[in-house]
């Protein structure tokens, strides 16, 4: 992890004045800096300007929710699109309590209520076909064996976050203060989105029940496990291809 593109305050001078730039370890795909302890600068390493514009559009329609606040319109630094956000209050959780899980479940319910009425120009990222191609590319037999056990038809319900792991939200005094990193948002299945949360935030069956209750879903826990398995297999495969540790996720679904 860590920044992939080195930036200085001088690089940002054409866009805004910055006196202090601190590289962070947040994120695995993009370069992230803290600017003057007030803002977060994200340099997108692998997405297009069009996809960044899609994130901006989505955050604007969700401004009634605790989501990342964009300070200025997208700009390009060293040939790569960038966004400047307000620095969120609070801290990332090391472990989620029932109260934290209930809040993130309620957030996702409200987010989906808004997102179902909007279209994403970003192609779906989380489909059976994409997962199958990813697994074939990995050449890892246990992934393929697990894939063939899945019985799931994903829907296109509306725009999903797609990557709401526990380190993509902050809490201040145990209250959800911000959800961020919408760079993987696209059209997808709302239950897959919820399953990503379960995969990262929930360690027990009881915690999964808390999540489903706060989301107000009527799906059975047994059926929901199939979505969690799909999410776990997807992110295990992705981490495998990125040569990152995938065992913590794979143990949950393998």
TrEMBL record:
A GO molecular function held by the record: homoserine kinase activity
Keywords: Kinase, Transferase
InterPro entries linked: Aminoglycoside_PTrfase (IPR002575), Kinase-like_dom_sf (IPR011009)
Keyword Transferase on entry: yes
Xref: Gene3D superfamilies: 3.90.1200.10
Residue span, Aminoglycoside phosphotransferase domain: 26-206
Pfam family, one: APH
EC number(s) on file: 2.7.1.39
EC supergroup of this enzyme: transferase
Protein name: Putative homoserine kinase type II (Protein kinase fold)
Source organism of this protein record: Sulfurospirillum barnesii (strain ATCC 700032 / DSM 10660 / SES-3)
């Amino acid at each position: 992890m860590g920044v992939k593109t080195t930036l200085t305050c001088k690089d940002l001078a054409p866009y805004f004045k910055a006196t202090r730039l601190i590289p962070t370890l947040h994120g695995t795909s993009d370069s992230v800096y803290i600017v003057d302890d007030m803002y977060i600068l994200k340099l997108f390493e692998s997405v297009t300007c069009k996809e960044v514009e899609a994130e901006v559009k989505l955050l604007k329609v969700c401004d009634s929710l605790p989501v990342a606040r964009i300070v200025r319109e997208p700009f390009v630094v060293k040939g790569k699109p960038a966004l400047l956000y307000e620095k969120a209050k609070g801290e990332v959780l090391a472990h989620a309590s029932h109260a934290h899980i209930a809040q993130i479940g309620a957030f996702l319910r409200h987010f989906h209520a808004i997102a179902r009425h909007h279209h994403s120009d970003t192609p779906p990222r989380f489909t059976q076909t994409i997962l199958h191609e990813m697994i074939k590319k990995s050449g890892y037999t246990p992934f393929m064996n697990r894939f063939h056990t899945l019985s799931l038809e994903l829907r296109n319900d509306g725009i999903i976050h797609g990557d709401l792991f526990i380190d993509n939200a902050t809490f201040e005094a145990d209250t959800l203060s911000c959800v961020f990193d919408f760079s993987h948002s696209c059209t997808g299945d709302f239950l897959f989105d919820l399953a990503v949360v379960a995969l990262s935030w929930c360690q027990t069956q009881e915690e999964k029940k808390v999540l489903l209750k706060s989301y107000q879903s009527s799906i059975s826990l047994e059926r929901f496990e199939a979505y969690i398995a799909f999410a776990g297999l997807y992110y295990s495969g992705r981490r495998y291809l990125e040569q990152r540790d995938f065992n913590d996720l794979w143990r949950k679904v393998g």
